[in-house]
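Render this sequence as a predicted structure.
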Amino acid sequence: MFDKINPGDKKPGALSEDELRAAFAGPAFHSNKIYLSITGSGARLAFMEQQGEPVPPTFRTAVVLSLPDALALRDLITRMLSENGGSSVEGGTLG
């Protein structure tokens, strides 16, 4: 099952072939540390990886979401984890 949530209407819908292709077009970095900061631009999520305490974290990527998009992402993650018992190979998109 692949689905998306459009932050404007919050209604799940099916992914188009173009959206599905775009969702898997780039690399997926491993991340075990996330830093969230709320700024004037929105919610900034920085994703990092750390290989144990003595090793400093390595930056992987960051995104800035508008606050409505950040809330929609929260809802999408909560819904998908609830529906799939916390483990799934399914995907979802926002917007």
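Summary. The first strand starts at residue 2 and ends at 5. The chain has a mean pLDDT of 81.
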